[in-house]
UniProtKB/TrEMBL annotation, chain A:
Belongs to the ABC transporter superfamily. Residues 4-237 form the ABC transporter domain. InterPro entries: AAA+_ATPase, ABC_transporter-like_ATP-bd, ABC_transporter-like_CS, ABC_transporter_ATP-bind, P-loop_NTPase. It comes from the Bacteria. SMART domains: AAA. It comes from Reyranella soli. One of its GO terms (molecular function) is ATP hydrolysis activity. This is ABC transporter ATP-binding protein. Keywords: ATP-binding, Nucleotide-binding, Transport.
TrEMBL record, chain B:
Pfam families: BPD_transp_1. This is ABC transporter permease. The chain crosses the membrane at residues 34-58, 88-111, 123-141, 147-166, 187-206, 243-261. One of its GO terms (cellular component) is plasma membrane. It comes from Reyranella soli.
Length: 261, 276
């Protein structure tokens, strides 16, 4: 049985004037345990909406969302979330207190949770910054605190919304390597939203490209079976890149045309 | 040029690292403009009183100081300041203790908001000064009427700010906690409450300032002691000096209370991002 399945999922929002706006429509996808699924698509096509449905923060307006065969009814500890933007961190807590927040909820004792939080902070390259409050951290550092916070809770599924968007190329590269390693070691299933095609190819086992909104839906799924190191020199890499690029480009143009109209 | 621009950030961190001589120097440098401001206040007061107005109806600072010392020595000033301050503190604390939970409830539950808002949104427009007469009729001229009025002054501002604070919590803060496994009790105590603290403190600070207005007005109308009484008796017996002592006391009390509050906010909630 699939770990996650979305069948004809739709989500509409009601505008202030009362009109209904369809963010995603007829979205179909199944994810197997252990996948690293990357979701691409033009801005506003509904990627974050899909993630929020998977997390259980919002319920679908149409269709069915299931986790191990059971409908998703709300958020839970088995699905860790890394949010787009940094307004999910707690400004009154230090970096390490933010990271250990999930363990604290569970009543893990102080010493142990501090140790574990420190390990994850180290993993995201924030050793020495543990005593700082979010307001004292850069955008990229805050993003990494978020990642450490989600990881420290050891979820079965990791939902990440453009987690490396705010990082410089070097840090981003290092974080990609780290995430890939964590995925291999912890056997988590990852849903990863990005705008970066290279990132999707380097990280993913499968890439999905969405159509432009309104009513964004899945345009195409592409498996990435390039074993071993994935480098830009590899002809399979290049072919895949070209294909994804063309798909995304088409949708971005469509989105722009729609906006102009 | 480049030397100067370079030394600036360096001396910043150096000061924080704490060679004590340089931090004292820093403190003097920061404090001097304030000193200058206060000095000019008294200086201009002096000039206007002595050379411009030149009337017994407007005493200069040193005359007020001398009178203040007299009143301090015979205990009148301490008694009156103490009376006003005690009323403010009791009413302010009680008002905050009532206002914070109500604000949290209004901010958290839409149904509670609908039920309670007609109360808060109508009663808060009655200035507490307008409640003085009814307070005296209900509670007499003793302490209860004053404390009632300060509570009245405090409670709505605290409710409003607290509720606004709850409303301003970003959805992602709550969602993050849910995804980490928090139950609703944990979300309330570990996320919603701390996220609202800066707003609560802001409300309390405004309420504290308003309490001074209310207490003086209430004491002017009906009381046995307090700064308002001092002001009233000053008029009755033409004790201009006493009036000025009371006015200056209000300046000092208000200033000190506000500073203490700000210091408290910085000390206990500085880590709470005050601009959420
Ligand atoms: N809470 C909401 N209320 C109303 N409309 C919403 C809401 N959330 C999202 N939308 C709309 O749904 C559409 C999809 O939004 P979503 O945030 O999922 O896009 P996205 O693909 O994540 O974009 P980006 O790449 O820019 O993050 C947008 O048109 C957006 O305006
Ligand atoms: Mg998004």
């Amino acid at each position: 049985m699939a770990l996650i399945s979305l069948a004809d999922v739709g989500k509409s929002f009601r505008s202030r004037e009362g009109r209904s706006w369809s963010a995603v429509a007829d979205f179909n996808l199944t994810l197997e345990d252990g996948e690293f699924y990357c979701l691409l698509g033009p801005s506003g096509c509904g990627k974050s909406t899909i993630l929020s449905l998977l997390a259980g923060f919002t319920l679908p307006s149409a269709g069915r969302l299931e986790l191990s065969g059971k409908p998703i009814k709300g958020a839970s500890r088995d699905r860790g979330v890394v949010f787009q933007g940094d307004d999910s961190l707690y400004p009154w807590l230090t970096a390490v207190e933010n990271v250990e927040f999930g363990l604290r909820l569970r009543g893990v004792d102080r010493r142990e949770r501090r140790d574990r939080a420190m390990q994850y902070l180290e993993l995201v390259g924030l050793r020495g910054q543990e005593g700082k409050h979010p307001s004292e951290l850069s955008g990229g550092m805050k993003q990494r605190v978020q990642i450490a916070r989600a990881l420290a809770n050891e979820p079965r599924i990791l939902l990440m919304d453009e987690p490396f968007g705010a990082l410089d190329a070097q840090t981003r590269g290092a974080m990609q390597v780290e995430l890939r390693r964590i995925w291999e070691r912890m056997k988590v299933t990852v849903v990863f939203i990005t705008h970066d095609i290279d990132e999707a190819i380097v990280l993913g086992t499968r890439v999905g490209v969405m159509t432009a909104g309104p009513g964004g839906t899945l345009k195409k799924n592409l498996p990435i079976d390039i074993p071993g190191e994935r480098t830009r020199g590899d002809p399979r890499y290049i072919a895949l890149y070209e294909e994804i690029h063309a798909l995304v480009r088409e949708e971005v143009l469509r989105a722009n045309a729609r906006r102009a109209a | 040029m480049s030397e100067a621009t370079r030394t600036l950030p360096v001396s910043d961190t150096g000061g924080a690292a704490g060679s004590s001589a340089s931090s004292i120097w820093q403190a003097i440098k920061n404090g001097f403009p304030y000193f200058l401001g206060f000095f000019s206040l008294f200086f201009i007061w002096h000039v206007v009183a002595v050379y411009v107005v030149a009337s017994v109806l407007f005493p200069p600072p040193y005359a007020v100081l001398l009178r203040a010392i007299e009143l301090l020595q015979d205990g009148v000033l301490v008694e009156n300041v103490g009376a006003s301050l005690q009323r403010i503190i009791i009413g302010f604390i009680a008002g905050s203790l009532i206002g914070i939970p109500i604000g949290l409830i209004i901010g958290s539950f839409p149904l509670a908001r609908k039920i309670l808002e007609p109360w808060t949104e109508s009663l808060r427009f009655i200035p507490s000064v307008a409640m003085i007469t009814i307070a005296v009729i209900w509670f007499g001229i003793g302490e209860p009427s004053k404390i009632f009025l300060i509570i009245y002054t405090t409670v709505f501002i605290v409710i409003l700010n607290t509720a606004a604070g709850v409303g301003a919590i970003s959805a992602n803060k709550i969602r993050a906690a849910q995804a980490l496994g928090a139950n609703s009790r944990q979300i309330f105590f570990l996320v919603a409450l701390p996220a609202t603290v800066p707003y609560i403190l802001t409300g309390m600070r405004i309420a504290m300032a308003n309490s001074f207005t209310t207490i003086v007005a209430a004491e002017l109308v009906a009381a046995n002691a307090g700064l308002g009484v001092m002001l009233w008796q000053g008029r009755m017996y033409m004790q201009i000096g006493d009036i000025f002592v009371a006015l200056v006391s209000l300046c000092i009390l208000g200033f000190t209370a506000d500073r203490l509050f700000r210091f408290g906010v910085a000390r206990f909630a500085g880590r709470y991002d005050v601009t959420p």
